[in-house]
Design a protein that fits this description.
nine-stranded parallel beta sheet
């Protein structure tokens, strides 16, 4: 099992370069970064975990810039987003960013995608909240058209389109690995089966009950049962949890690091070394 990590990197935390080097030297598998462009101060959307929104949400580094730094100082460390908020991006520009990062890193990038939770943040990007899932679906398809080996046009029902175009570089493997985050449910599972390589459930709770449902949706879509990837995300580990994920067939789990300075983060990596 590959042991990867995620962290809210900010202007106040350990740097991407120092963290990436430490992760690779210690034998960790990957680094995944979350995304928030901004957090409106006037906000009615509650923090999903309850209570006050943690400080780091409004201070996150751009994940693609930070992962570019991480890629430049490592050779084996996998790199990913957890998650990219698809509906908040120009998909043509995002497709170029992803392809460039995957190309320059030698195919080490995983695109974790999701729909977000902050209505005010999405609204500032012009996203109609009820349409965010379908908008994300269309933008992912548009990006895949730009990554296709031959110029391929795409026109979505919600207004996003691209002409058949020369669009290089291509991702190293034709397209990066794509994982969809979100709470278990029939709509999410149908989209995972239709568009992605697997599921990135936050925390990994309830997988014993939900995984068979996902497998049914996956196979009903004609997907190879062995190809489904399950990557529990933002996990606070224990020996029992890690063993449970292994029993479920997980080949990778992503452990949560604190949004702290070097001393704090490296201390947690020391504690997590037992799982490597």
């Amino acid at each position: 099992m590959r042991i990867s990590t995620t962290i809210f990197l900010t202007d106040e935390t350990i740097t991407p370069v120092r963290l990436a080097r430490e992760l690779e030297q210690r034998g960790f598998g990957g680094l995944y970064l979350p995304e928030h462009t901004h957090i409106p101060v006037s906000r009615e959307t509650p923090y999903p975990a309850g209570g006050e929104l943690p400080r780091e949400y409004g201070r996150t580094l751009d994940p693609f810039v930070a992962l570019g730094q991480a890629a430049a100082v490592t050779e084996r460390l996998l790199l990913g987003t957890g998650v990219t908020l698809l509906a908040q991006h120009d998909p043509i520009a995002l497709a170029k960013q992803i392809a460039t990062l995957d190309h320059l890193s030698g195919g080490r990038f995983t695109l974790g995608v999701g729909f977000g939770w902050n209505r005010e943040e999405a609204a500032d990007h012009g996203v109609a909240w009820p349409a965010r899932r379908e908008l994300g679906r269309e933008r992912l398809d548009l990006m895949k058209a730009l990554w296709a080996p031959e110029p391929t046009a795409y026109e979505g029902a919600l207004g996003d389109s691209v002409r058949a175009s020369e669009a290089w570089p291509k991702p190293a493997g034709g397209a990066p690995r794509i994982l969809l985050g979100g709470a278990a449910g029939p709509k999410l599972f149908a989209q995972i089966a239709a568009q992605t390589d697997g599921w990135m459930p936050i925390g990994g709770r309830g997988l014993t009950e939900s995984l068979p449902v996902l497998r049914t949706a996956w196979e009903a879509a004609g997907r190879d049962p062995k190809a489904l990837q399950l990557v529990p995300y933002a996990v606070l580990p224990s020996p029992g949890k890690v063993a449970h994920y292994a029993e479920l067939g997980c080949e990778e789990i992503v452990l949560q690091l604190p949004p702290g300075g070097e001393k704090e983060v490296l201390g947690v990596l020391d504690a997590y070394a037992r799982y490597l």
